[in-house]
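input
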Amino acid sequence: MAGSMGTWILVATAFSVVNVLFLMILTVIWVRNYRTFGSGMTAGLAVFGSTMILENFVAVYFFFSSGMLYVDSPGVQQSVATLRALQTIALAFLTYVTAK
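output
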């Protein structure tokens, strides 16, 4: 299936995998903080992180199972990759300030 996928979808997939890694780090920190402080805010952040992990896994699954939807549209492929890259940048900063 990867042979029929465009380069931009492979880039989007790589960004989604990196996003999952950032989100796993964040979620572990937020769960630890919830256990320490019992704050509803940290519980909400942990649920948010878990939901975003699921969303990124679904995106990767979708890229591989439905990649043919993007094959004829390099513009759509590039847009999807750009959105994943923006998410990666946001998560990188959030992970940095949260882990600090």
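quick obs: The two ends are 40 Å apart (CA to CA).
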